[in-house]
Amino acid sequence: MIRRGRHYTALSEEHQHLAVLLLGMRINNWLRIRDWGSVVRDMQRMLAELSDAPQAGLLRTESYWMGRNFIEIQYWQDITKLDEYVHNGAMSHLTAWKNYAARTKNRDSVGFYHEIYIVGETPLEAVYSNMPPVGLAAAVGQLEAVTHRTNGREKLDRYRRELKDAHEEEPKSRRSESQPEP
Q1: What pLDDT does residue 171 have?
Q2: Which helix H or strand E contains 112, and what residues bound it?
Q3: Burial class for 153, CB neighbours closer than 10 Å (0-12, 13-18, 19+)
């Protein structure tokens, strides 16, 4: 649902150690569907697994397909939760990674990368105009923007205070949704 007007998000104390994981896959050879198709299936399996385990720490995920490139953006509670999931032998990730490594050892039919950003105390600003909640706003919430003339630091401090108040009023189940709205 589109939210008319300007909205913003800032990190509350609860999200001061937020980790953003950017995953990318590139199909280098369309004919090697067995190689890249298995990566897509493994990703779907891991996302379903994480959806059923909110305690794992995944707050939100968004997927994009552009030509031969697939991008997955994940918002995690913190790097510790992400690391625990990645190294947990009872979850799907380790097996999926080993399968990928074995399948592509001598082939370059599919490429893969990841980038991790620890948000922490880093000042940030996220403003949305006439958009449904997406990205960071969908992961941690957003508030309606007010038209005050302030410098960036004052604005971020105000946003942080207001978001903290809003999070205290919002039910916990809403904040931990891990699937995007249709």
Answers
A1: 52
A2: strand 110-118
A3: exposed
**DSSP helix, strand, coil percent of the chain (3-state; round to 5):** 40, 25, 30
The C-alpha R_g of the chain, in whole angstroms, comes to: 18
For the chain, the first-to-last Cα distance in angstroms comes to 9
pTM recorded for the entire structure:
0.71
Q: Give the pLDDT confidence of 128-157 residue by residue, as tens digits.
A: 777 777 777 788 777 676 655 555 566 667
- Please identify every stretch of the chain with a pLDDT value under 70, giving residue numbers as ranges: 120-125, 143, 145-156, 158-160, 163, 166-167, 169-182
Answer whether 50's CB lies under 8 Å from 178's CB: yes
Beta-bridge partners for 27: 110
User: 76: buried, middle or exposed (CB in 10 Å: 19+, 13-18, 0-12)?
Assistant: buried
Q: Which domains does the chain have, with CATH numbers?
A: 3-15+123-175 (no CATH), 19-118 (3.30.70.100)
Sign of the dihedral through C-alpha 47, 102, 82, 141: negative
Q: How far is 145 from 125, CA to CA, in rounded Å?
A: 12
CA 76 from centroid of its chain's CA atoms: 6
Question: How far is residue 36's CA from residue 103's CA, in Å, rounded to a whole number?
Answer: 10
